[in-house]
Amino acid sequence: MRALYVEKNIPRALLTKALAPHWHDFVWTPFSVTRMEDLARVPLPGPRWVRVRNELCGICASDLSLLFVKADPSIAPAALPANERFYLGHEVVSTVIQVGEGVTRFRVGDRVLMDTHFAGANCATLEITPPCRYCAEEDYHFCENKSAPGPRGVGGGFGEGYITHQAAVYPCPPDLSDDAAVLTEPLSIAMHAVMRFPPQPGERVLVVGAGIIGLLVTMVVRALVPSCEVTVLARYAHQAEMAERAGAQRVLRGRPTYQTIAQVTGGKYFSALLNKGVVIGGFERVYDCVATAETVNDALRWTRAGGTVVLLGAHMAPMPRVDLTPIWYHHINLVGSYGHGMNTWNGVRKHTYEWVFEYWRAGKLPTDGLITHRFPLSEYRRAIAVASDKKSSRAIKVVLENK
């Protein structure tokens, strides 16, 4: 079973971090943290485990961050003992090819979506009873027993298949095509964030970034709260075009000036010497899908007093020189959202995937055209190069097909 993974080897990580920006292909040398290996076939580690064959897997920005070591070893998650090896690829639809004798959720031939497998072990996969407080609420990403002894999954979406506990994958509805299924996980990231921190009807919403997550956040906001006025910041022309198709009423290219933001929101722009300024009366809700120091600084200054900035971008490095004064001075709420789980909407609580399925079936998630490039698994290097260069390739979502 072939699988692409990244080892948490600090010397190699630092070398990759230093050289990869100048020599892109360094990641494929023996001196980097990345490995594509033929893993030995191992038996299922328990009666409630399954083996799956991958069909289609999307390439995510978080995968690329790990691959090219854009993550800084000083960030908090890097200290977790369970994160020694990262099998890349989590936006994946697969077919069950083997089940343990105690498996009750699946049969051979069923299609499944990766659920918590990428995030590591939890009380459900380790079969810990009673579960921790988070797993009891089905918030498995925040499990307090991740480092407890027990079997771990092997493999990920960037490969031929993987072995995992039945609790770590989710049934794929038969009416979803593979293309729709492979977008379920990134859609769930957007759905989870917007349902946790929804705008109110009629509010002005800004989506920072028109990569796949920004586009999906735009779709979800329009699906859940259609009366909102949504503005999207897009870096490239093809992203701007797709943002309009996703439902944005206004798309701003590049990095707009503070005067432009004031014009768009009807706010007032104030500046001073040695100061980039601030917009008073800006957006009520900002979804920052980039989450760099620059975008966070701008988002906090473009949000009206009492408004909310939601960080979705997986920027895995400390942010120097971030001005947090708007948080106390203007009561800006700075919150984050990660992954998916259970969400409550209009009094109904269910798995984020189920919400995605519901709105997809209702025709409110116009995902046609988001998959722009396809490569067989054997061309994974080329696929990653295309996904890494959105300007030249005009890529939105690049997928690997296990053929």
Kindly describe this structure:
The chain is of the alpha/beta class and 403 residues long. The protein folds into two domains: 2-183 and 372-401, Medium-chain alcohol dehydrogenases, catalytic domain (Quinone Oxidoreductase, Chain A, domain 1, Alpha-Beta Complex), CATH 3.90.180.10; 190-336, Rossmann fold, CATH 3.40.50.720. The protein has 14 helices and 20 strands. Strands 3, 5, 6, 7, 8, 19 and 20 form a seven-stranded mixed β-sheet that branches. α7 (212-224) packs parallel to α8. The two termini are 13 Å apart.
What is this structure's SSE topology?
Elements: E1 2-7, H1 10-19, E2 34-38, E3 49-58, H2 61-67, E4 85-87, E5 91-99, E6 111-114, H3 123-126, H4 133-136, E7 161-165, E8 169-171, H5 178-182, H6 184-196, E9 204-208, H7 212-224, E10 229-234, H8 237-246, E11 250-253, H9 258-265, E12 268-272, E13 275-280, E14 283-288, H10 293-302, E15 303-311, H11 325-329, E16 333-336, E17 342-345, E18 348-351, H12 352-361, E19 371-376, H13 380-388, H14 390-393, E20 397-401
Helix pairs in contact: 6-7, 6-12, 7-8
Structure, briefly:
This protein is of the alpha/beta class. The chain has helices at 10-19, 61-67, 123-126, 133-136, 178-182, 184-196, 212-224, 237-246, 258-265, 293-302, 325-329, 352-361, 380-388, 390-393; strands spanning 2-7, 34-38, 49-58, 85-87, 91-99, 111-114, 161-165, 169-171, 204-208, 229-234, 250-253, 268-272, 275-280, 283-288, 303-311, 333-336, 342-345, 348-351, 371-376, 397-401. It is globular.
